[in-house]
Specification:
Blueprint: H1 10-18, E1 27-30, H2 34-37, E2 38-39, E3 42-43, E4 52-54, E5 60-61, E6 66-71, H3 73-98, E7 123-125, H4 127-131, E8 135-136, H5 137-148, E9 151-152, H6 154-157, E10 159-166, E11 173-179, E12 192-193, E13 196-197, E14 199-204, E15 219-224, E16 262-264, H7 282-292, E17 298-300, E18 306-310, E19 371-373, E20 380-383, E21 397-407, E22 433-443, E23 448-453, E24 466-468, E25 475-476, H8 478-482, E26 495-496, E27 501-506, E28 532-535, E29 543-545, H9 551-559, E30 567-573, E31 579-581, E32 587-592, E33 599-604, E34 607-613, H10 616-620, E35 621-623, E36 626-629, E37 640-650, E38 662-665, E39 670-674, E40 680-682, E41 688-693, E42 711-716, E43 721-723, E44 730-731, E45 735-738, E46 741-744, E47 755-763, E48 780-784, E49 788-792, E50 799-801, E51 806-811, E52 818-823, E53 828-836, E54 842-844, E55 850-853, E56 872-877, E57 890-892, E58 896-901, E59 908-910, E60 919-924, E61 931-936, E62 947-949, E63 955-957, E64 961-964, E65 985-991, E66 997-998, E67 1005-1008, E68 1012-1017, E69 1024-1026, E70 1032-1037, ...
Parallel strand pairs: 5-26, 6-20, 6-23, 8-28, 23-27, 31-38, 40-48, 50-57, 59-67, 69-76, 80-88
Antiparallel strand pairs: 1-4, 1-9, 2-3, 7-16, 10-11, 12-13, 14-15, 17-19, 18-22, 21-22, 24-27, 25-26, 28-29, 30-32, 32-36, 33-34, 33-37, 35-36, 37-38, 39-41, 41-46, 42-43, 42-44, 42-47, 45-46, 47-48, 49-51, 51-55, 52-53, 52-56, 54-55, 58-60, 60-64, 61-62, 61-65, 63-64, 65-66, 65-67, 68-70, 70-73, ...
Helix pairs in contact: 3-5
C-alpha cells in the first residue's frame, strides 16, 4: 500500500497543484439554543449528540494543547493489543496533522503546498471486509476525533432550517434555510463539499395535500448530489453517520461513504502526499485549520482544571526595575524583600520612597481566565496508560504550556494612581497586545477513554454499535463575546470543548449466532460473527477481526511475567508426515507456557538456522498451549532433509528443549502481493516488485525445483492464461532480493499480456504445477505502457469521418483516459478537442489493441478542416503516458444545407457585384466545404460549372454557416448560372471530401443580375417606333428573365397603368442579351403614343432589377400607330358645326370633331380638298397642341375650333356646296390617314 494510487492519481495531484480546484468546505458543530431546534411546532432535526451546525465565530474548540487517551480493561480484553494499535494509528494521523516535519501548527499549514488541496477522497475498499460486514475501528475512531475537535457532518448540516413563517392564509410555510458550510480558503458559505456540488430538498412527515392542512412534526433539508466522480460523501467528519441514528428522517442516501470494508488511510490520498496526516480530506484539514489557527480570536475561558504556574507580566520593560514584575523569574534577594526586581547598580532607589522599606507592590498576579485568545495552533494526543494492559488504575500525569492571550486593560500599580502624562508614575496608555502566562494542569483521569461494553439495542431492536460522550460539559462563551448589551438570545458559542470523553464500542461479536424463525428447534452452530476489525490494506490478509481468541493469553502473560521456560511436547506439520512444506503448511507447536514465547529458532543440530522474534511471534500464539506458525515465516535457510531440523522456543526466562526433528521442504512459491496491486503497471518503464515467500529454495528435496525463481506467467482474473502465447511459463531473469522479495525486470512482459485484472504467477521451474497458487491476492489493475497507434480506419482520402465509426488500432490502449485530436505540429486545438474516458460511444478493448469510436462521438467541429494547414493527429493519453503518432489526416463530417437567407427578393439570387445579395447558407459540418457551385434544380452541373473555391476572401465559413459576400467575390462563369425561361431554377451544391451537399429542393432559386440597356431597334430602322407594325428589338444584359417592358415618359414615369408588354402578350426573350416586343404587344397602347422626338423610353423589369433605356437618341423614341377614321362619315365627323344628315360642316355653327384612333401619335394635320390642294398644314404635338386643336387622352378624338380654321385659311370652310373637303393626319412614323369628303360652308343657317 506504500505506493497505492500514486501513479494512477498523478494527474489529479498535478491538477490540485497547478489548476486550483473549484472549492470545498466544512461544517462546525456545537450546542444550539433550544429556539434554534424548532419553530411553530416543527422540529428541525438537529439531533446529533454533539449539537448542530454553527455559524462563523460561534464554533466550539479545545484550548488545551495536550490531551491524553487510555484504554480500560474492557477494551483491552476485547480488542487486545491490535485494537489498541488501531486506535493509536487514528491518533497518529491527527497528531501528524498538527505537527510534523513540514510544519508545526496549523497556522503554518498551506493546504496546497502540504498536499491537501486535491485530497478529496482518502478511502479504499477491502472487499473481504465488506463481504464479512466488518467495520474498521481505526477509521471510526478517526471520525470520532474529528467530530470532537469541532467539525460536524457537512452532508447533514450544510443546508439547515433556521426558522419558519406562514402566509396570512396559513396555507404555505416559508422555511428560512441557511448555508453553514464554509470554504477553507475564503471562509464564505458554499455548496461544494470536497469539490462536489450539493443541493438540498425538503423532507418532512406531513401528508401530501393542496396547501398546508397538517403541520409536519419534523422537517429537514436533506443534502443530495448527482456527482459521479466518487468523491461525494468522503469527509472524515461524516464517518459516525454510517451508523443510523440521531435523526428523525430516513436517509435517502447515507450521508457518508464510510461503511463495511471502507477504511481511511494517508496512503490512499489524492493530493500527492502520503503521510498519516493525509488520511484527512481537504475539507477536514481546512476546517481544523480555521478552528485552531492562532489568528482566529474569540473570548474564551480556560478549563477549570488549569492552574497558574507563571503569571503574565503586564508592565512594560522600563517599569520592571522600579516595580515588581509579574514574570516568573525571581532574582536572589539577600534582604528578604519580595523579589522579581531587576538588579540595580550602585545605590539606585525609587525617588520619594525610603531606601529600607519595601516599595509599593501589586496584588498577587492571578490566572487570566476569560480573555481574547486565538486558536491553540496544535494539539497532540498522548497515550497515558493504566497500570497495566488490563486497565485497572490510571497513571496520573501533568502538563504545562504557555497560554497566549490578548489584553486591552491596563494594570494599575497599587498606591500610584497618578497617570498624568509627565508624572513619574505614568507608564503609558495601555494598547492591544499579546501576553503570555505559564499554565498547567494535573491529569488524574484520561481525557479520552476507550471502553468495550454491551450496549444493548435501540428502541426498534437494532444493536447499538457505539456511544460517545455528548456536549453537556462544553462551555458556552457567547455572553463574553457579545458586548455590553445582550441583544440576541438564541445564539450559543463560541465556546470551549471539554472532557472527559468516553468512547464505548459494543462487544457485539462474542458468542455464536443462531437464527430462529419459529421452528420447534434449531440446531446450534459455532459460527462466530464480528462487527469490528482493523483494516490495514485492501487484501484479504490485511484484516484483523475482533475479538481475537489469543488476546487474553497474551494479556495475561503481559501482566504476569513468565517464571518458567516454554515446554514443547509435540511439533506437527499440517501434512503430519514429519516434513514441513514451508510455503504451504502450518507448523503447529504444542506444549505449555507458550503464551510467553518471544522468539522461535529453527536448528540444524546446535546450529541456529533461523530466528523469528518480535511482535510477529504474538500473532502465532493461539493459547498458552499452542503456537501455529503459518506459511511465509520460515525461510529457505531453515530448509533441510527429513529428521534434521528442530525447533526451540524462547521466553524471558530462557529457552525450551529442542523439539523432535523434522524435514523442511520449500513448496511452490506464494505471491502475497506486488508493487502494482490494484495499480497500473508500465511493463516497459518499471520493474515489478513481487512479495510473498518461497522465492528461494535450499533444494533439500528433488521437488524443490530451482534455487530461485526462474519462470512466470500472466493470467486474467478468471485464470485464463494471456502470457506467454504458447501456453507455458516464460523464463525470466528475476532479481531475487530475498525469499520474500523478487523483482521482475522491465520488458519481461510484452503487449500480449496487456489488459485489466491480471494475475502474476511465478515458479522455480517450468512445470505448470510449480507455479504459485491463485490465492486471493489483489490483481494488477492493468498491464500497459505508453500507448502506440499503428492504424486508423481513415477513408480512401485519409480523412477521419467523425460522423462515421473510427477504429484506432495499436498497443497499450487499454488504460486510455483521454483521446484528443491535436494539430499535426503537436499543439492542442483551441478549444481543445478531446474525449475523457469513459465516454458514451467509445469502447476500449481490454487487451489494449483497439479503441472503437462510434459515429458523432466527436460532436464538435473544432478539428474539421481541409488541406495541409488543417491536418490533425490522434493523441491518446493513458495512465502511463501519451501516444506519439505521425499519421496525419483531415477531419470532416457530411455537410448539410438546411436553410438559405439573404435574398432581397424571395427565391431570387442577385449575383451582381455592386447591388447583389450576400447569401447565407445554414447547415452543419460546413467547415469541410472546398467549393460552392451553382447547379440546376435537379442537381446537375451547368455549363462551365459556375463556382467559388474556398477558402477565399469574401466567403466566410464556419461549421454551421457559409456567408458569400457577392460584392467581394463572384462565381466563376457566373453568367452560365443565370436563369432563363427554359432553365430557371438553381440550387447550391457544396463540394468537400464527402458527398456533395445540395441546398433543399423547396428552397430553389433563380439567378441573375439586374438588367442593363444597350440599344433598341425598330423594324423600320428609325427612332420612330410604329407599334402596330414594328418589332421592337432591345439589346443589353440581364435579359434572361425579363418579366415586362413598359413604355414610359421621358422621365421614366408610367404613362398608362398596366400597359407593359410581357411574355403572355408577345414579349419574346432571345437570350440574356436580347429580347423582342412584336407589334401590338403593349396594353392600352393608344395612350402611350407620342410624336414628340425622344419623348418615350422603355422600362425593362426582371426579377433582379429594373432599367430604363437611355434618355438620348440611343434609348428614346417616338411611338405611334397608323391613324384611322371610322368607316362612316357620319361617325368619323362630329361636333357642333357638323351635320351628319347633310354631311356638312358649317363653320358658323361651331367645332369640327374627328373620331378615330391613334391620334396621340399624329405629328401633322392637313386640311385639303379632293385634289390634294392644301389649305392648312400644321405640325403639332398632340400632348401639347396649338390653340384650336384638342386631342383627347385616349387618342380617339381630335377637335378643331372654327377659330383655328378661320385664323389659318377660312376658304377651306367654304366648298361651294360640294363635298370636296377632307383632313389628312400623318403620324411621327409618317403613317397617313385621310378622312372622307365633306361639304363645308360659312353660310348662316
Amino acid at each position: 500500500m506504500g505506493n497505492m494510487k500514486r501513479l494512477c492519481l498523478v494527474w489529479a495531484c498535478l491538477f490540485g497543484l497547478w489548476a486550483a480546484p473549484k472549492a470545498s468546505a466544512f461544517v462546525m458543530v456545537g450546542p444550539m439554543d433550544p429556539a434554534e431546534l424548532a419553530s411553530g411546532g416543527i422540529d428541525f432535526n438537529y439531533t446529533d449528540d454533539l449539537g448542530g451546525p454553527k455559524d462563523l465565530k460561534t464554533f466550539f474548540r479545545w484550548n488545551i494543547p495536550l490531551l491524553t487517551y487510555a484504554f480500560d480493561a474492557s477494551f483491552m480484553q476485547y480488542f487486545g493489543l491490535e485494537g489498541r494499535d488501531a486506535v493509536k494509528e487514528a491518533f497518529t494521523s491527527v497528531n501528524d496533522f498538527f505537527h510534523n516535519n513540514e510544519y508545526s501548527g496549523v497556522s503554518s499549514l498551506e493546504l496546497t503546498t502540504h498536499g491537501f488541496r486535491s485530497n478529496y477522497n482518502t478511502t479504499w475498499l477491502n472487499t473481504t471486509a465488506k463481504n464479512a460486514q466488518v467495520i474498521d475501528i481505526k477509521s471510526l475512531t478517526l471520525g470520532l476525533i474529528i467530530n470532537h475537535l469541532g467539525l460536524g457532518n457537512p452532508y447533514r448540516y450544510s443546508f439547515g432550517i433556521h426558522s419558519t413563517s406562514t402566509n396570512s392564509a396559513g396555507t404555505q410555510i416559508n422555511f428560512n434555510v441557511r448555508l453553514r458550510n464554509f470554504d477553507p480558503i475564503t471562509y464564505k458559505p458554499t455548496s461544494l463539499i470536497n469539490n462536489v456540488a450539493f443541493s438540498y430538498r425538503l423532507i418532512h412527515d406531513a401528508p401530501p395535500s393542496v396547501g398546508v392542512t397538517t403541520l409536519p412534526t419534523f422537517a429537514d433539508m436533506e443534502e443530495f448530489t448527482t456527482d459521479t466522480t466518487g468523491n461525494a460523501w468522503t469527509s472524515l467528519s461524516a464517518i459516525t453517520d454510517a451508523f443510523y441514528g440521531n435523526t428523525a428522517i430516513f436517509w435517502t442516501e447515507q450521508p457518508t461513504l464510510f461503511g463495511f470494508g471502507v477504511y481511511y488511510d494517508g496512503k490512499n490520498a489524492m493530493g500527492g502526499h502520503y503521510e498519516p496526516r493525509h488520511a484527512l480530506t481537504y475539507d477536514d484539514a481546512g476546517g481544523l485549520k480555521y478552528l485552531y489557527r492562532t489568528n482566529n480570536y474569540v473570548y474564551e475561558g480556560l478549563d477549570p482544571n488549569v492552574v497558574l504556574m507563571v503569571p503574565a507580566n503586564f508592565l512594560p520593560t522600563f517599569a520592571i526595575p522600579v516595580f515588581p514584575g509579574g514574570g516568573g523569574r525571581i532574582y536572589p534577594d539577600p534582604t528578604g524583600i519580595q523579589g522579581s526586581y531587576v538588579p540595580r547598580r550602585n545605590a539606585g532607589l525609587i525617588p520619594g520612597l525610603p531606601i529600607t522599606s519595601s516599595v509599593p507592590v501589586q496584588a498577587p498576579p492571578a490566572l487570566v481566565d476569560i480573555a481574547m485568545r486565538g486558536g491553540i495552533n496544535k494539539i497532540q494526543f498522548q497515550e497515558q496508560q493504566f497500570d497495566s494492559f488490563l486497565g485497572i488504575n490510571f497513571t496520573a500525569t501533568t502538563h504545562e504550556w504557555t497560554d497566549v492571550f490578548v489584553s486591552t486593560n491596563g494594570q494599575n500599580v497599587v498606591n500610584l494612581n497618578d497617570t498624568t502624562p509627565g508624572a513619574s508614575a505614568f507608564i503609558g496608555v495601555p494598547t492591544l497586545k499579546h501576553f503570555t502566562q505559564q499554565v498547567g494542569r494535573a491529569i488524574f483521569q484520561p481525557d479520552i477513554l476507550f471502553v468495550a461494553d454491551e450496549l444493548g439495542v435501540s428502541p426498534d431492536g437494532i444493536p447499538i454499535a457505539f456511544n460517545r460522550t455528548d456536549n453537556t460539559v462544553w462551555v458556552d462563551n457567547y455572553t463574553n463575546n457579545l458586548g455590553p448589551a445582550q441583544l440576541l438570545t438564541t445564539n450559543v458559542g463560541p465556546g470551549s470543548i471539554g472532557g472527559p470523553i468516553q468512547y464505548t464500542f459494543t462487544k457485539l461479536g462474542q458468542g455464536f449466532e443462531v437464527i430462529w424463525s419459529g421452528e420447534a428447534s434449531v440446531v446450534g452452530n459455532t459460527n462466530t460473527y464480528s462487527l469490528w476489525g482493523h483494516i490495514k490494506g485492501p487484501g484479504p490478509n490485511d484484516i484483523v477481526v475482533f475479538p481475537n481468541d489469543a488476546q487474553m493469553s497474551i494479556l495475561e502473560n503481559a501482566i504476569s511475567p513468565a517464571t518458567a521456560v516454554p515446554v514443547i511436547t509435540r511439533i506437527i506439520d499440517a501434512g503430519e508426515d514429519n516434513r514441513l512444506t514451508r510455503t504451504q503448511e502450518n507448523l503447529i507447536i504444542e506444549g505449555s507456557n507458550l503464551a510467553s514465547v518471544t522468539a522461535i529458532q529453527i536448528l540444524n543440530g546446535n546450529l541456529v538456522l533461523q530466528t523469528i522474534q518480535g511482535s510477529v511471534v504474538q500473532t502465532f500464539i493461539n493459547s498458552h498451549n499452542q503456537i501455529i506458525i503459518p506459511p511465509g515465516h520460515i525461510n529457505e535457510t531453515a530448509e533441510g532433509a527429513d529428521g534434521t531440523r528442530t525447533v526451540v522456543l524462547w521466553n524471558t526466562v530462557g529457552k525450551s528443549d529442542a523439539s523432535t526433528a523434522i524435514g523442511i521442504a520449500t513448496g511452490v512459491p506464494v505471491v502475497t502481493g506486488t508493487s502494482r496491486d490494484r495499480l497500473n503497471y508500465d511493463r516497459v518503464e518499471h520493474n515489478v516488485d513481487i512479495y510473498g515467500y518461497g522465492f528461494r529454495s535450499g533444494q533439500a528435496f528433488t521437488d524443490d525445483g530451482n534455487a530461485t525463481l526462474t519462470y512466470f506467467r500472466v493470467e486474467s482474473a478468471d485464470g485464463t492464461m494471456v502470457f506467454p502465447a504458447d501456453g507455458n511459463s516464460s523464463a525470466a531473469t528475476f532479481e531475487i532480493k530475498s525469499d520474500t522479495h523478487a523483482v521482475l525486470p522491465v520488458n519481461a512482459i510484452t503487449a500480449i499480456a496487456d489488459g485489466s485484472n491480471r494475475r502474476l504467477r511465478i515458479a522455480r521451474g517450468p512445470a505448470t504445477d510449480a507455479l504459485s497458487s491463485t490465492n486471493n491476492v489483489a490483481l494488477i489493475a492493468n498491464i500497459t505502457t505508453t500507448p502506440t497507434i499503428s492504424n486508423l480506419s481513415l477513408d480512401s482520402n485519409n480523412n477521419f469521418r467523425r460522423d462515421e465509426a473510427m477504429t484506432i488500432s495499436g498497443t497499450a490502449l487499454n488504460t486510455a483516459r483521454r483521446i484528443e485530436l491535436i494539430n499535426s505540429d503537436g499543439s492542442s486545438l483551441d478549444p481543445a478537442t478531446y474525449l475523457d474516458l469513459p465516454y458514451p460511444g467509445v469502447s476500449v478493448d481490454d487487451n489494449g489493441s483497439r479503441i472503437q469510436i462510434s459515429s458523432n462521438t466527436f460532436l464538435t467541429s473544432t478539428a474539421d478542416g481541409n488541406g495541409s494547414a488543417n491536418l490533425r493527429i490522434f493523441k491518446i493519453f493513458n495512465s502511463v503516458g501519451a501516444s506519439d503518432s505521425n499519421t496525419t489526416f483531415n477531419v470532416n463530417a457530411q455537410p448539410t444545407v438546411l436553410f438559405l437567407a439573404g435574398f432581397t427578393a424571395p427565391f431570387t439570387f442577385n449575383r451582381d457585384a455592386v447591388t447583389g445579395d450576400n447569401v447565407t447558407l445554414t447547415g452543419s459540418n460546413l467547415k469541410n466545404v472546398t467549393e460552392i457551385q451553382l447547379v440546376d434544380e435537379n442537381g446537375s452541373d451547368l455549363s462551365g460549372t459556375p463556382s467559388i473555391s474556398v477558402p477565399v476572401t469574401g466567403v466566410t465559413v464556419s461549421d454551421t454557416s457559409i456567408v458569400i459576400n457577392t460584392k467581394t467575390v463572384q462565381f466563376g462563369n457566373g453568367t452560365n448560372a443565370d436563369s432563363n425561361t427554359t432553365s430557371k431554377w438553381r440550387r447550391f451544391k457544396l463540394l468537400s471530401a464527402r458527398d456533395a451537399a445540395l441546398s433543399p429542393q423547396n428552397l430553389r432559386f433563380q439567378v441573375g443580375t439586374p438588367p442593363s440597356f444597350t440599344s433598341f431597334a425598330t423594324t423600320g430602322g428609325t427612332s420612330n417606333y410604329r407599334r402596330d407594325s414594328d418589332t421592337l428589338t432591345i439589346t443589353g444584359t440581364g435579359f434572361g428573365l425579363v418579366t415586362s417592358a413598359e413604355i414610359v415618359d421621358v422621365n421614366g414615369l408610367t404613362i398608362a397603368a398596366n400597359s407593359a408588354a410581357n411574355t403572355t402578350s408577345g414579349l419574346a426573350i432571345d437570350s440574356g442579351t436580347q429580347f423582342r416586343v412584336p407589334a401590338n404587344s403593349f396594353f392600352n397602347a393608344n395612350r402611350l403614343d407620342s410624336s414628340g422626338a425622344n419623348s418615350r423610353r422603355l422600362k425593362i423589369t426582371t426579377p433582379f432589377g429594373v432599367v430604363v433605356s437611355d434618355n438620348n437618341s440611343t434609348g428614346a423614341f417616338t411611338i405611334s400607330a397608323t391613324p384611322t377614321f371610322h368607316a362612316n362619315l357620319s361617325t368619323s365627323f362630329a361636333g357642333g358645326g357638323y351635320n351628319g344628315g347633310s354631311n356638312t360642316y358649317n363653320w358658323n355653327d361651331g367645332k369640327l370633331t374627328l373620331n378615330g384612333n391613334n391620334f396621340l401619335g399624329v405629328e401633322t394635320i392637313r386640311f385639303e380638298d379632293n385634289g390634294s390642294d392644301t389649305y392648312i398644314n400644321v405640325s403639332f404635338n398632340p400632348h401639347a397642341p396649338p390653340a384650336g386643336l384638342i386631342v383627347n387622352a385616349e387618342g380617339t378624338q381630335l377637335t378643331v375650333t372654327k377659330d383655328f380654321i378661320n385664323d389659318r385659311n377660312a376658304s377651306w370652310a367654304s366648298s361651294g356646296g360640294n363635298a370636296t373637303r377632307r383632313i389628312r393626319l400623318t403620324s411621327a412614323a409618317d403613317q397617313n390617314a385621310t378622312s372622307g369628303l365633306i361639304i363645308t360652308s360659312t353660310t348662316t343657317n
